[in-house]
Amino acid sequence: MMVHLVRATTRTTLLLLLVVALVTTSVESSKQHVNNKNKGNLRRKTEDACLYCTMYILDVQMEDHSVHPDTVYRCELEDDGVMYTIEPPQSYLEANPDPVDDIIGARVCVEQGVADASTNLITSGNGVVRTVERRRHRQLAKNSGDSTILVVRVKDGRGTGPVVSMNQLEGAHFGNSQYPVSVVSQYRDCSNGKLRYRPASDIGAQGGVIEVQVDFSFEGANVYSSEAAVLRQVNARLAPYGKSMQSWDHVSFCVPGGSKTNTDGGGGWLAYAYPFGRTSWFNNKWCDSLSAVVHEFGHNLGLLHSGGDASASGVELEYGDQSSMMGFSYLEKSKPQMCFNAEKSQQLGWYNDKILTVNKFPWTGHLNPMVDYGMSNAHQVILKVGASTMIHFNAATKANRGTREYANTIIVSKNLGTVKGRSYTSNVLAALNPGGFIIVENTYIIEACNDAVVRSESSSRPSYAKMSIRWSHEASSCDQEVDPNEPGGVQTPYTPPSPITYTNACLDMVDFNFNGVRYNDCDDLARSYRNFISECAHPNSIPSWYCPARCNQCGSRSGGADPLAQTATAPIVQKEDSVRRRTTTTTTTNRRRGANQESRRHALGEGKVRLETSLREEEEN
């Protein structure tokens, strides 16, 4: 009897435990469902306490050409390519000061990280973000060879799409009768056939273009937060074909109007992209702008902006070079036809075999435009001087016929590196007409000789400009004969100058720049320079060189090295005669003012580029 009772009690206890376990499991499941619903699809990586993602920094272009105030950090999850906004802690930013080399493309661990789809934010539980692997200058988009483009037209919850149709998107990207110049043809021509784009295929697309719909309105929405929903729809659209967004090199999104960025500043956004990434986004009417799409694809290829006058600031500094597609964009179809500047072209690697590094002065030779790179009789199309100065001939012909600035001039640009936390790759130092020159860093002169020719597009010979590069104290070498078949030009080792001997040099120099302060004459120098008399007594002193009368140095004397050449802060070109020492100063740039960019900067030089016609070509041949 006792045995049966114990057995019955045991069975009852086990049954009760099983019921309790089932109820507990059901309650916990219900709680988890409620939590997920309320918190919005939280995704957490618990493996080694890290949420892994790849860092990017948005680059936003504004309709009013203002500089976008936001620095937006985004992190791409590894499984589906969806971007989330992340606010890196100050410790991470201090440890990674260069946005291009240190942050963009870096794989990071967000400790105790959570990705919240409802807010499109990644947060860290303990505030620690650390780099696991750096990008090492790789990019997802390829800058040569065969590359692919997927174009996505997005409709909102009401079925309203952007003003640019599927057919127009196809034409703008891949070309048709409405769009004789397309993104594909412009990259093909600027790269001399080295970068060949083709549309996405085998996914039921219309000429590389697909359409997806989201369940919300873009009117007033934050476009960054809207990205995630669009990307999920794209991946769902591609899944039946065994594809995902990562299957293509570029993915170009066209969204309806009305959305905003975090801070729209003085105007709405027109486009944005992820440098070294694969995606670019276009706002409504800008979706078929040739320059906007080429510009944003350039970011995917790793290019940053082409800036204007290096002494400027803000928008002039960042977007001011309108000879390059990496300056401002234009709301125009199939134009303007222009390529990239020398610094960007070197980065893309399209002309590497025709880049000449000038490392011995003086150098004299011909410079061909980059659009003539493919001609067998073309030589150097980019000159590189030092570590960061680039020179190219901006001939307004062929794929560059629509250049909006500095047409048919020699453009001298410089890599500025990182400025104020943002990375600028190039700024214009000067645009030289024939006969013009610029003195760089008070050290050497870049001169455009008077011989420059832009040939007709049907010509069998390349356009050219004769160039001279020399030390600042040397005379022009433009008169030196150059064999057109000699690709390296004439380059000779540097020979120090002989001491200058003055004869009857009793006239003071009229004008010079000393220690950054402009003096009109030697009397002003005498009043301003306390140790003037004692300086006159010092051999090779500045007063004794440039104010011989005031320093009682009349008569013949040996000059030795020019002291001003070592101390001046502004360029001076020096010439000698038997009576006095004279200087000529040149201003290489005038600041452009106003958004319309009407004012143009040109260096000293009255010469005009010869524009050869077909008739002239026939006469020469």
UniProtKB/TrEMBL annotation:
Q: Would you indicate the residue range of the signal peptide?
A: 1-29
Q: Which stretches does UniProt call biased (Basic and acidic residues)?
A: 598-621
Q: Does the keyword Signal apply?
A: yes
Domain (Peptidase M11 gametolysin) ranges: 160-351
Q: Where is this region: Disordered?
A: 558-621
UniProt xrefs under InterPro entries: MetalloPept_cat_dom_sf, Peptidase_M11
**What keywords sit in the KW lines?**
Signal
Name the chain's protein: Peptidase M11 gametolysin domain-containing protein
Name the source organism: Grammatophora oceanica
